[in-house]
Specification:
alpha/beta, Rossmann fold, 5-stranded parallel beta sheet, 7 helices
Length: about 210
């Protein structure tokens, strides 16, 4: 009686196993990155006093515009630019809040209406900064959004000094893992950050490789 030869996995089964292992590795890496991202989100404004040429507010979340107005009133910049006034913010409401400012401050507020996402905010602000000869900005956005914003703004405005000024809406909880809404928000923002990072860095690597050929 002869021993049976060990069966060889079919190509389809081997492919399925390989795909499952790869998917598990990707998911593990994504979860590890999410934990890093969430644990390193800003919890305070590191530099609340440095004067800059302008304050830039990114629309799309609570407390941002109000914070920008307060910073302008406190004299931390000579002008304020609100980027992304479009579908994200009703211009009439924003104009009403601008008109409620003292005239000497309202005249220092400019609105940008062409941006609908963070890369668009960076492009729109860079064009405005060039036209206004702005060399430094204080960037106002939510803490969870700051890392991706800085990535896009540094790429669009390499010669401009950027001072981050995060705001911390009460609806975004610090113990994020206990709150499904906050956990979902941070997970989405982390995924967008990874996409932005890959687009910037892989694009630069590809151009460098082409230049070396």
């Amino acid at each position: 009686m002869t021993d049976a030869l060990p069966s060889t996995p079919s190509p389809a089964r081997a492919l399925a196993v390989g795909f499952s292992v790869s998917a598990a590795c990707v998911m593990t890496g994504w979860l590890a990155g999410l934990l890093w991202f969430a644990s390193t989100l800003p919890a305070a404004v590191d530099d609340p006093t440095t004067h800059t040429d302008a304050i830039v507010v990114l629309t799309g979340g609570s407390e941002r515009i109000e914070t920008g107005f307060k910073l302008l009133s406190a004299g931390l910049a000579d002008r304020l630019f609100v980027s992304g006034v479009g579908e994200q913010v009703k211009a009439g409401s924003l104009f009403a809040r601008t008109e409620a400012l003292p005239p000497e401050l309202a005249d220092k507020v400019a609105l940008g209406a062409s941006a609908y996402d963070t890369p668009g905010n960076a492009t729109e602000t860079a064009a405005w900064a060039r036209a206004e000869h702005v060399a430094s900005i204080r960037l106002v956005t939510a803490g969870y959004h700051m890392r991706r914003s800085l990535l896009e703004f540094h790429a669009a405005m390499p010669g401009v000094r950027i001072v981050p000024h995060a705001v911390f809406p009460a609806v975004v909880k610090s113990d994020w893992w206990r709150w499904p809404g906050t956990a979902s928000l941070i997970a989405r923002e982390y995924t967008k950050f990874v996409v932005s990072w890959a687009r910037r860095n892989l694009g630069l690597a590809a151009r460098a490789a082409e230049g070396a050929m």
